[in-house]
Amino acid sequence: MFERSKVPLHKWLLATYLISSSKMGYSAHQLHRTLGVTYKTAWFMVHRIREAMNPTSKTPIGGAGKTVEADETYVGGKEANKHRNKRAAKMDVFGAKEAVLTLVERDGQARSFHVANVTAKTLRPLVTQNVHRSSDLMTDGARFYRYLGREFASHEAVDHSDGEYVRGSAHSNTVENFFSILKRGINGTFIHVSEAHLARYLAEFDFRYNHRSGLGIEDTERTNELLRNVAGKRLTYRRSGEAANA
User: Who is most buried in 3, 5, 67, 194, counting CB within 10 A?
Assistant: First the structure.
């Protein structure tokens, strides 16, 4: 991650700590003011750090006796903060936003994906490849989950459209809590994220959630874990501009 960088190592380490310990994220503008580097340098630094937050290997989450919640949401900056030509039409609720699928193991880890659309064809491979088949799957009442749920140990759903949110142990509150953290960070700290970089922002929020205080991991340990992941995570300017669905 630090290869060929002219930024002093102590500034890299401080940036890594600030981003690792900030629950709602740390913007490039704030980093450039804190470190005394240009905004362009700070912007590239935060994207390199987010790239390092991607796990090297992704084994399925969940397992026998464990519950994994799956849900989708749409993220993007507030319409009022966008340039006029990038604002969604008033009648198009999700017009300028990007779809995200998140899988969360209760009392465990989260894994998020930027997806082109919310369809069974798009979501099924992500769910089946990233959730252990012996897991209990929890979802909302979307139709495509009814068929997908048959591939797991059990499947329960709550029908939000009918006003149902909790039925015994059947709920999606864990993944909804993750979404609230993600959206507060994007809307409050970053204001707007582009399609090209959304996957890295998701990796950042996944990393902090997977190394949260609730699991006994504090800021210093979280930063150390990130520094252990930097090897082989080279990010060039060319790659930083690639769109997730290009």
Answer: 67
Domain boundaries, position 78: 67-179
The answer on 221 and 126 residing in a single domain is no
Pairs from 218-221 (Cβ < 8 Å, separation ≥ 24): 219/17, 219/20, 219/21
The count of residues in the chain is 246
Strands 136-140 and 154-158, bridge-based pairing: parallel
Token pair of 201 as six digits: 């922002």
Q: What is the pLDDT of residues 2-12, one digit of tens each?
A: 888 899 999 99
φ, ψ (nearest 5 deg) of residue 3: -60, 130
Classify residue 133: in a domain, yes or no: yes
User: What residues are paired with 137 via a beta bridge?
Assistant: 68, 155
Two tokens, residue 101:
């699928």
pLDDT at 110 over 70: yes
More confident residue, 26 or 86: 26
In a domain, residue 73? The reply is yes
